[in-house]
Amino acid sequence: MSEGPPPLDPIFRREVGPIVSGLTRWLGVGYLDVAEDAAQDACYRALQRWKYDGVPRNPGAWLNQTARRRAIDLLRGDAGRLRRSAGAAELDRLVGLEPSEGIALRGSSRDAQLRMMFSCCDAALPIRSQVAVILKLLCGFGIREISNAYLESPAATKRRISRAKAVIRGRGQLFDITPGIEWATRLRGVHTAIYLLFNEGYHGSHVDVAVRKGLCAEAARLSFSLLERTDPEPSSLALAALLCFHGARLDSRVSTDGQLITLAAQDRSMWDRNLIVQGVKLLTGTTPAPATTAFQLEAAIAGEHCMSPSYAQTPWRRIVDLYDALAEHDPSPIVRLNGAVALGELGDESGALLELELLTASRRLADYPFLPAAIGELSGRVGDRTGARRHLARAISLARNEQERASLQKRAEHWEC
Amino acid sequence: MTSFLLLIHGREARDLSPQQLGAHLAEWNTWIDGLRSCGRLKDAAPLVEGVRAVRAGAVTDGPFAETKDIVSGYLLLRAEDLTQVTTIARGCPALGLGGWVEVRELEAG
Question: What is the largest CA-CA distance in chain B?
Answer without folding.
Answer: 46
